[in-house]
Amino acid sequence: MGSKFMELLLNAVKDGLLLGGFYGAISVGLTISFGLLDVVNIAHPIFIILGSYIAYVLNSTWGVDPLLAGLLPAPLFYWLGVAVYRVYYRSFERRGEESLRGLVFFFGILFLIEVSLIITYGVDYRLVSAGYIGRSLDLGGLSFAYRLLVPFLAGSLLTLALFLFLTRSFYGKAIMGVSQDRFALQLMGADPVKIKTIAFGLSIATTSLAGALLIIIGPVEPSVGRVYIGRVFAVVVLGGMGSVGGTLVAAIIVGVAESLTSIFVGPAWSEAVSFALLLLALAVRPSGLFGR
Amino acid sequence: MKHTGKFWFGGWALAVWFVAASLLAGFPTAAQAAEKPIKIGFSMALTGGLAAGGKAALLAMQIWAEDVNKKGGLLGRPVELVFYDDQTKPANVPTIYTKLLDVDKVDFVVSPYGTNMTAPAMPIVMERKLTFISLFALAINEKFNYPYYFGSMPTGPKPYDDWSTGFFEVAAAQNPKPRTVALVGADAEYPVNALTGARKNIQKHGFRIVYDKRYPPATTDYTPIARAIKAVNPDIVYVASYPPDTVGMIKASKEVNLKPKIFGGGMVGLQFTPIQQNLGVALNGIVNYHTWVPEPTLMFPGIGDFFKKYKPRAVAEKLDPLGYYLPPLAYAYLEVLAQAIEATKSLDQKMVGEYIRKTEFSTIAGKIKFATNGEWAKSRMLMTQFQNIKSGDLEEFSKPGKMVVLSPEEFKSGKLIYPFQGWK
Amino acid sequence: MLATLLSQRFIRNQYFFFAGYVILQYVILATAWNILGGYTGYVNFGTSAFFALGAYSAAILINKLGVSHFLALVVAGGLVSGLLGLGIGYLTLRLRGVFFSIATLALAVVLQTAIINWDYVGGARGIYVLRPKEAPFFGHYVEFLFIMMVLLSLVSVGVAWWIENSWVGRGLAAIRDNEEAAECMGVPILKLKLFATTVSGILMGVAGAPFPYYITYLEPSSAFNLDYAVNSLAMPMIGGTTTWIGPVIGAVLLGTAQQLATVTISSHLNLLLVGVILVAFVVLAPEGIVGLAQRLRRRKLS
Questions:
Q1: Residue B180 in contact with residue B236, Cβ under 8 Å?
Q2: Nearest one of B250, B243, B252 to B217, comparing CA atoms
Q3: Is residue B419 part of a domain?
Q4: ipTM over 0.85 threshold
Q5: Is residue C242 part of a domain?
Q6: CA-CA distance, B137 to A233, in Å (whole number)?
Q7: Cβ contact, residue pair A125, B47, below 8 Å
Q8: How many domains does chain C have?
Q9: I need a labelling partner for B376 at 20 to 30 A (CA). Which of A114, B36, B97, C23 fits?
Q10: Contact C41 A100 (CB under 8 A)
Q11: Which domain CATH number covers A80?
């Protein structure tokens, strides 16, 4: 009995870890837009779904490997993000009316994209196929489903890449700077608006890959995004707004918590777990684990 | 100054309201026709969650209308289908049906697709004393006990139980008899009902339940669930799921190598071609329900012709090209209505309703007779097993021998491969 | 309005009452949303949670406790949702507006999960509510529901009008414009915010309470439908958020358009239209139709 329990526990933790890596991948874009830029992009999950659909189309029409199908459209997503930000900036941020209308604006975008996807593709679930989906890697008595392992690895790499970019490169550091002190940034000669535009574009670019990862894990249809709104915000807030590393850690915490809840309490409540964590974090430590 | 401004607005608002109200009230519909057609009205899920099934059903119904009109119509008059998209939103049903009845003045109404969508129409139908045939509404009449309700779902008089009766009967007939069962399903209307029925069947056969849990319908990862089930080592695994979780559960079970003696049960989605193609050889050995498969025991008169007409149009409209699940029944339920109208030579709701109650009909979906509660007198929920799937190609699924019927006895077309051979 | 009503009774066209019910329901929801959204500046994405709670409270009263007196249902629905509003406000209103909005999203999901798992109200299977055939002197029950909705809409709009023109409204506007400054000036911001959330919640619950009788089959996915959240947000945005008449205009226009579309073009394009209009208004005409009309009038005067 004890060893069975241990086996279940180990597996729950392991699956949660893998899931967490994936949650990190989907949230890290929001860390930039919401955490660093203070733009409440609640449409973030639907961009991910858009990424999933594009990956689906590339995969099913030309057999492109899903990972590649996530990376290739990233530049397009970048420009899409830039365009969206420009509208947002001109309509709201410049006038200083971000809160109410900005939020509603992104909600409208969320709705628009979701409905457009429904009109174009219908509500049937879409899946991708690749050689590694459906197989597992057996290591030391535990089995790692590739379906989860690949997104975990890709997600972690993405997070690492972003972390390095933000801390080492000029534009990256400028982005970190603009979130803390835009005046100092202007003194440095960098245009804060341009920096913010680049950052937002980057955050949307990540959704391209995140979407591909999502559809590797399981079937996707347009309203799947809604379940993720709470998760990504929970992860970003818990991780401390703006901390990429914190996001990954928080994502893993959420992933493991969900996995444990699913196995030991029952799958019904695992979705609510991320929200409960979010509310808890807000009540107890709103600046998150690694917050500034 | 401020006040007059507000009154001006008030006036505007009222004017808009008045125009809107008049439009809604006296909505003009195209009414000409030299030979006044018989209108059959309904709402159908053409968008939203049930759209895949809804559009397939609509196609079948349109084929029916064309077939009838080619043969001279009903009672010498052409038949016309009047329908609107309910968007799979139950809140739209009352407005659509009252419009159909009060403004479009249809002669008969039939139901939307699905239980959630049909329920809101029942009170309207009941208070006007209409004959009402439903398309796949599970056990609705249990609450209403309306004598002129007729269901087209092939479950028998006890729908919740009949969904899984065949599955557990087949299991119990095996030697050595399996002992333990794991039940799992999505947290949604159909799976909850199916599991309730399953528990009754389990009790009847004396199986022991070792796992009984539900998961939220939008779960991403089914591995923890499959793992938890594997940990209790059940002989039988019964899953009641909708398409996304069907796929999720099967893939997860394959990954953790969950290998009971019988796997399957009430998984929606395994009847749909895109999912069958995606899962391919992993389907081998799964025992699941279906409403019609291309086995020799089910070749009813007219069904071959129906599929010849259905298939090319389904492909053109980007629907499930095989369409075994819903379309035959959508066609058949209109056949029942039409035959009753022809036989009684009237459009009177009560006469038609009484006729349907007492008669056995011959349709492309076989012989249909109704029990007193409006459900089918005998269950024809098929239990099939996927066998010999080699590639998961579309054409494979249209041939006999791939989805072998195990139950009910009169349609049996093969033997159960027991125990479950494991995942390929 | 009365003229159309009376004439309808003689034509015996029920479609009007069914469709009208939905539009009035949105008048109440839009007005309720706007008290917190337009007046105070806090965006509530979880309208469906409040609405569904109102509906389920009424359903419990009807089915389990045998209470079918209409007023009781409305009061119950309003109370429960009001409490929810108070609760969620208390938990999150000390934080930034953004967190309140996210919390309302979370609320909708958590509540829906809770209801799905609560077999007392039927869980995922839903709950059937049998509608009485007739109501005292209004004849058909749905006509009665319609008239009740008219009354409830008038009440909601009245509440909004009162708030707008009272010191409460001025306080809320101060919060909306600059919360920190308002606090410095001594405005009791927390109390006012809690008041707004609670009143908003009460009205949304009131909108939901008659719903079980209208639809006769209540189940989680339709009660918690995202449409309620989107519409109750889009309607004030389109109509205008600063005054009581904005939500009414938005609800009547958008609601009627949706009802007509359902029985004519009838497809998802109709939803797409809502999204496009919403974004267009938010970006181009943030004051809504009311604002546009005011601008037109000013130009005419000058």
A1: yes
A2: B243
A3: no
A4: no
A5: no
A6: 39
A7: no
A8: 1
A9: B97
A10: yes
A11: 1.10.3470
Residue B8 reports pLDDT greater than 60: no
Rg over CA atoms, chain A: 19
Same-domain check for residues B217 and B343: no
Give me the torsion for CA of B348, B354, B356, B359, rounded to 10°: -130
Decide if C118 contacts A284 (C-beta within 8 A): no
Enter the pTM of the model: 0.82
Interface of C with A (CB under 8 A): 37, 41, 43, 45, 91-92, 95, 97-99, 101-103, 105-106, 109-110, 113, 116-117, 176, 226, 230, 233-234, 237, 241, 268-269, 271-272, 274-276, 278-279, 282-283, 286
Domain assignment present for C279: no
Question: Which amino acid, one-letter code, is at A64?
Answer: V
Q: What is the pLDDT of residue A280?
A: 77
Strand partners, B370: B376
Cis omega (within 30 of 0) for bond into C132: no
Of C101, C226, C272, the CB nearest to A103: C101
Taking one residue from B and the other from C, the number of pairs with CB-CB distance under 8 angstroms is 146
- Are C113 and A112 a contacting pair at CB < 8 A? no
Per the CB < 8 Å rule, is C269 touching A268? no
User: In this complex, do B224 and A11 lie within 8 Å of one another by their Cβ atoms?
Assistant: yes
* Lowest mean per-residue pLDDT among A219-223, C95-99, C124-128: C95-99
Using CB atoms, which residue from A7, A123, A145 is nearest to B48? A123
Residue C68 lies in a domain: yes
Range of the domain at C97: 13-227
Tokens standing for residue B56: 């397939």
Q: How many helices (H) and strands (E) does chain A have?
A: 12, 2
Question: What element of type H or E holds B324?
Answer: none
pLDDT, tens digit, 9 for 90 and up, residues B196-224: 999 999 999 999 999 998 887 667 678 88
B64 is in which domain, residue-wise? 8-156+302-369
The tens digit of pLDDT for each residue in C61-73 reads 888 887 777 888 8
Kindly state whether residues B179 and B324 are assigned to the same domain.
Answer: no
- Same-domain check for residues B351 and B401: no
- Interatomic CA distance for residues A151 and A153, integer angstroms: 5
Say if residues B29 and B103 touch (Cβ distance below 8 Å): yes
Domain total for chain A?
1
- Among all residues of chain A, which has the CA nearest to that of B251? A134
Q: Is residue B421 in a domain?
A: no
How far off is chain A from B43, nearest CA to CA, in Å?
Answer: 18
Residue B135 CA to residue B205 CA, distance in Å, equals 31
Tell me how many domains chain B contains. 2
Question: Residue C203: in which H helix or E strand, if any?
Answer: helix C189-208
CB of C117 closer than 8 Å to CB of A268: yes
- Distance separating alpha carbons of residues B343 and B334, to the nearest angstrom: 14
Q: What is the domain-level CATH number for residue B395?
A: 3.40.50.2300
Task: Give whole-number Cα distances, A155 to A20, A28, B178, B322, in Å.
Answer: 9, 9, 44, 39
Q: Which residue has the higher pLDDT, C294 or B246?
A: B246
The secondary element (H helix, E strand) that includes residue B367 is strand B366-369
Q: Suggest the residue from C40, C111, C267, C282 to mutate for an interface test with chain A (most A CBs closer than 10 A).
A: C282
Q: Which residue has the tokens 């940990």?
A: B231
In a domain, C58, yes or no: yes
Query: Is the Cβ pair A134, B274 closer than 8 Å?
Result: no
Inter-chain residue contact B214 with A227, CB threshold 8 Å = no
**Do B285 and B139 share a structural domain?**
no
Nearest to C14 among B13, B102, B119 (CB): B102
Are A127 and B223 a contacting pair at CB < 8 A? no
Q: Summarize pLDDT for A198-239 with one digit per residue, the tens.
A: 999 999 999 999 999 998 887 888 877 877 887 888 888 888
Distance from CA of C16 to the nearest CA of B (A): 5
- Calculate mean pLDDT across residues B52-76: 91
Q: Do A229 and C269 touch (CB under 8 A)?
A: no
